[in-house]
Amino acid sequence: xxxxxxxxxxxxxxxxxxxxxxxxxxxxxxxxxxxxxxxxxxxxxxxxxxxxxxxxxxxxxxxxxxxxxxxxxxxxxxxxxxxxxxxxxxxxxxxxxxxxxxxxxxxxxxxxxxxxxxxxxxxxxxxxxxxxxxxxxxxxxxxxxxxxxxxxxxxxxxxxxxxxxxxxxxxxxxxxxxxxxxxxxxxxxxxxxxxxxxxxxxxxxxxxxxxxxxxxxxxxxxxxxxxxxxxxxxxxxxxxxxxxxxxxxxxxxxxxxxxxxxxxxxxxxxxxxxxxxxxxxxxxxxxxxxxxxxxxxxxxxxxxxxxxxxxxxxxxx
Length: 317
What we know:
Number of strands: 11
Organism: Miscanthus lutarioriparius
Helix content: 40-55%
Subcellular location: Chromosome, Centromere; Nucleus
Family: Belongs to the CENP-O/MCM21 family.
InterPro entries: CENP-O (IPR018464)
Number of domains: 2
Strand order of the largest sheet: 1-2-3-4-5-6
Keywords: Centromere, Chromosome, Nucleus
Largest sheet: 6 strands, mixed
Radius of gyration: 27 Å
Shape: elongated
């Protein structure tokens, strides 16, 4: 057997072993995601959803607030109201009088894609509504509480994905700038939904062309493979900030297949006679400037021409 063929078979065996290990890791990753989002989180979501629906059904007025009106003064008014209501109900229970007479008006406040509710027990509920391509997606809840009007608020429960930095933001912002904390959660949630839905859409539209696909839980790292072409194309994108919906880093490599007629090599020696990948710079630029489904369509549309140009250029060297 020729040495070059032996090297090639050894490398193929190593590649298949690596591929098998990666596939096993991806399966375990999916199992972990499923387990982490089970019973307790679902119970909290169902309970809070019912409570927020009841609060919405009891509302007598919804006030739409613009960005200028959404400020510390309004939030202080809401906080004062929920504490006064809680104090009145506690006193009414002691003297046996109707608890809700002074608080028959139930006002909610809508600011962009979030709604602020006054909940029982001196709590403030924020309902976050998310969208993709103009269509509604998921609803998330966050409940804030403080022991008194003068004490700082804390997050007592929420239905945001566990891998988003809710507790870090609570520590950094909630006591010093509550408005910024509430708004920042909205931005992080919407960006996460946007990235997630972009991946869902390319799988739905182009799943027959995509091989292995990996993503981190917050979808800030995404990698997938295109195998239905003359080259195997690996695409890796990353988001340096979880508020981003377009990648800050993109790397696209085309790997010539061994069975292809043209195989680019740097050397004719047996040890170096391996396919050498090359960057597809046009694809990397598309990924950083277009949403993922649009970028994917542009990449595939131009791919065969780009490969021909690269092969022709290397053949002439």
